[in-house]
Amino acid sequence: MSRSLEEERQKTVNILKEDIFTTVGATTGKYLDSNGNQVSNNAWNFTDYIRIEANQQYSISNNGVVVGNLPAICFYTKDKAFISGEQLGDVYNKIVKAPSNAEYARLSYASANYKFIKIDSNEIYSTEEQKIGTWIDGKPLYRKIYETTLTQSAQNIHTDITLNNLKKIEGYLNNGTQIIPLGFGNDGNYANVIGQEKRLLYLGTWSGGTLYITVEYTKTTD
Q1: Sequence-distant (≥ 6) Cβ neighbours of residue 9 within 8 angstroms
Q2: 130-217 architecture in CATH?
Q3: Among 35, 104, 213, 217, which residue has the least CB neighbours within 10 Å?
Q4: Residue range 99-114: average pLDDT?
């Protein structure tokens, strides 16, 4: 591989921010099946090895077009040994999770609409921790959703996030009849969540329903 091509790959691929899909170094006229085998088909291509994060969830989308059926995304170790593959399926958005020992992936994609393919970790909202980017101090930034049944007008949700590492809080309450965004206040009614040391404190005039809190945070250990 020439140096210019390697530099272009590194410039294009970013394992934590926005879209990591790239056609640099792609193999044309073939797709990968879920066993990692190459299957000849002029309508399909597959990417070169793309750096990914182990245990990270990724969203594969194609701008409103189904992402495929038999073609797959395949995962590989740091030595580029095949681990596993997953068929894309006839869906508009495919969510996959990288294995714990994965460092690379290769994705099959239709050659006719490659400009619309995205592989994105930022679009994943989950009750499992997601690494989504980098904070202003250079540390990795994480996101997680806390889902809890609200039974009191003042209720604690315990976390393992220290106050100094907590960067963002947003969410809403679904009380069965309406959606109340956190931070709402009107005519004596309100719904708020306060971030404290290893806990989130809900304070509001509503005391029933399901509370969804999205937090973004860093870690002292990073």
Answers
A1: 22, 24, 25, 48
A2: Sandwich (2.60)
A3: 35
A4: 91
